[in-house]
């Protein structure tokens, strides 16, 4: 059993994908927000709030996951 994880484990593609998805969500939020203010629709504003919360949660998760993976990879107690 290895004493530490290989360095390639720290560059997990899932983390990169999560960050990209988070950025895409931010663009979506901005676009929907522009329409929401034009239409002055409660439904559109609700979609903006939910999507923004999703983007923040996804970004926080990806940052936390990257930190966890880095911590695990640098730990030699395995």
Question: What kind of assembly state do the chains in view correspond to?
Answer: single chain
For the secondary structure, the number of strands is: 0
What is the succession of H and E elements? Answer: HH
Cα end-to-end separation: 8 Å
What is the compact description of this entry?
The protein has one domain (12-74). It contains two helices and no strands. The chain has helices at 13-39, 42-74.
Polypeptide structure, described:
By secondary structure, this protein is mainly alpha-helical. The protein has one domain. The protein contains two helices and no strands. Helix 1 packs antiparallel against helix 2. It is rod-shaped. The relative contact order is 0.21. The chain crosses the membrane at residues 39-61.
Question: What structural keywords apply?
Answer:
mainly alpha, 2 helices, 0% strand
Sequence-ordered SSE layout with sheet pairings:
Elements: H1 13-39, H2 42-74
Helix pairs in contact: 1-2
